[in-house]
Amino acid sequence: MEFIFVVILIALVLGPLTGAGMRARGRHLGHGGPPPNSLYGPQQPRMLQNPYAGFGQGAPGMQGFTQGYQQPEQPLSDASRNSVDQDITRFGGELRDLDLDVVGIELSAEAQADYTKALDAYENAKQSLRNAEYDSDATHITHILEEGRYAIECVKSRAHGRGLPERRPPCFFNPAHGPSVADVEWVPDGGVSRQVPACALDAARVQSGASPHIRMVPMVGGQLVPYWEDSRQAAWARGYYEPYGMDPAIRQLTQGALMIGGFSLLMGLFDD
Questions:
Q1: 183 strand-pairing partners
Q2: pLDDT for the residue numbered 4
Q3: By residue range, what is the domain housing residue 210?
Q4: Mean pLDDT in consecutive groups of 10 residues from the start of the chain, 272 residues
Q5: Closest Cα partner for 51 from 209, 246, 240, 247?
Q6: Total domain count for the chain?
Q7: pTM value?
Q8: What is residue 110's predicted lDDT score, i.e. its pLDDT?
Q9: What is the pLDDT of residue 254?
Q10: Residue 252: what pLDDT?
Q11: φ, ψ for residue 104 (rounded to 5)?
Q12: CA distance linking residue 63 with residue 248, whole number of Å
């Protein structure tokens, strides 16, 4: 009897431990838990590592700025989704305009390759928006669109026998205007003069004393404000500007205490 009692006691003590060990082994093998390569379990938030890790080649200043970047993922806001959706629609219109611009022109192999990049950017952006769940997805999509818009400018330049355009940050007043052509001195309401990248049309307007075409977004309650005054636009803006962290004008906008609070949207996009 004593022997049987000892056996039962050992079974009661070791049984739960053995079961726990088997369950842990099952999870390790991919049974009954997250797959072995999963970055997060069912009770843990998705962690954002480096949204640009897969791009490899890209715009100047891209490398090094997101090293070690890690924070809990934030759900994609309606504001970011709407901004991305509007930009994709606009980009589709730009592709139709490009088709008219080069109709009847025999494109070189290089121009055709750039045209394909632009078309792929449009399709990839649409597919990515359909699957978007997090703020980093908005960042990823606007980076795709920024690449696509540069490809469009390359097609135009090659088709008309011009040199390739300089790789510059998007227009500050509205990144959907496409690549900037120059930095201009601009004084915002209640602020101080500073250099900002501008597209050809906005550069001409600012230099002539007119107001640039600033992207306005609705705040809660319907009030329209410049996009940089709405913190919900941060993920959307990051995809456009983060690749240009070494550009002097962008660095000026993202560092230091600026005189207007709205610019804080662009501050902190990069690691020092």
A1: 197
A2: 43
A3: 49-265
A4: 42 41 34 30 41 39 43 86 97 97 96 98 98 95 98 97 95 96 89 88 96 93 88 90 84 54 48 36
A5: 240
A6: 1
A7: 0.71
A8: 97
A9: 66
A10: 74
A11: 85, -5
A12: 16
Answer yes or no: is 234 within a domain: yes
> 79-105: b or e for each residue (b if 16 or more CB lie within 10 Å)?
bbbebbeebbeebeebbeebeeebeee
241 within some domain: yes
Structure tokens at 242: 């983060």
- Report the half-sphere exposure of 198 (CA within 13 A, side-chain side): 20
133 by Cβ neighbours in 10 Å (0-12 / 13-18 / 19+) ranks as: exposed
Q: How far apart are CA 135 and CA 147, in angstroms?
A: 19
- Using CA atoms, how far apart are residues 93 and 59, in angstroms rounded to an integer? 24
* Type and span of the H or E element at 91: helix 78-101
Alpha-carbon gap, residue 121 to 127, rounded angstroms: 10
Per the domain annotation, does 66 fall within a domain?
yes
Q: What is the pLDDT of residue 255?
A: 61
37 found inside a domain: no
Which residue type sits at 44? Q
The confidence score (pLDDT) of residue 247 equals 84
257: left (phi over 0), alpha (psi -120 to 50) or beta: beta
Q: Are 189 and 195 in contact (CB under 8 A)?
A: no
Tell me, what's the pLDDT at 71? 61
Give how far Cα 183 sits from Cα of 142, 172, 247, Å: 21, 10, 11
